[in-house]
Design goal:
Length: 215
Amino acid sequence: MSTFLDLARARRGHFKMESGLHCGLWFDLDMAFVDQAALDPFVTRLAQSLRRYDVEAVCGPLTGGAFLAQLVARLLGSEFYFTAPQQAIRPSFHRAIRPSGHQASGSSGDQAIAYALPAGTTHRLLGKRLALVDDVMSAGSSLRATMTAVERHGAIPIVVGTLAVLGATGESFFKERGLRLETTGRAPFDTWRQPECPLCAAGVPLEDPAGAAAS
């Protein structure tokens, strides 16, 4: 049976994820969104799983999570929101950004990250039942930061949805907080903090996968 990860190009090496954790396997998730006909069955299956939670909004982190959130929101007839790393959001003619020194807590790696919503959308979130979605979740750092961002504006996260779960780190985090997880597939995935990384110990240099970011 095919999985969403079959649409992504996998490569082995030594990589540092957005969470700060190290890993030996990287997926080019941007490639997975190129073929819409191949992607649609996985998006539809996830949307069907999320429908029973009666969510009013769907929110995902840039980039893949935001793409997925928009597709799922359309299928559910719900509102669509996205978050982005704070340094990636810039004031423009149409929007102003409120300064914030917040950093997401609970990161499993060596660093914390902060995501934010576009300022013009935040007033609509108060009291909304919301699904947090991302294309793939491993440590779940971008989803954790997204949860912090939406809760700050009064949204009520109900469920986490993802097209694939790698390992158990992210799922355990959300389970401890009482959030259910819906996914279309799972795969084993090894991650390490830098002091325990066997690739570091073996002297394998870190690679930069073309500026991409894992979550």
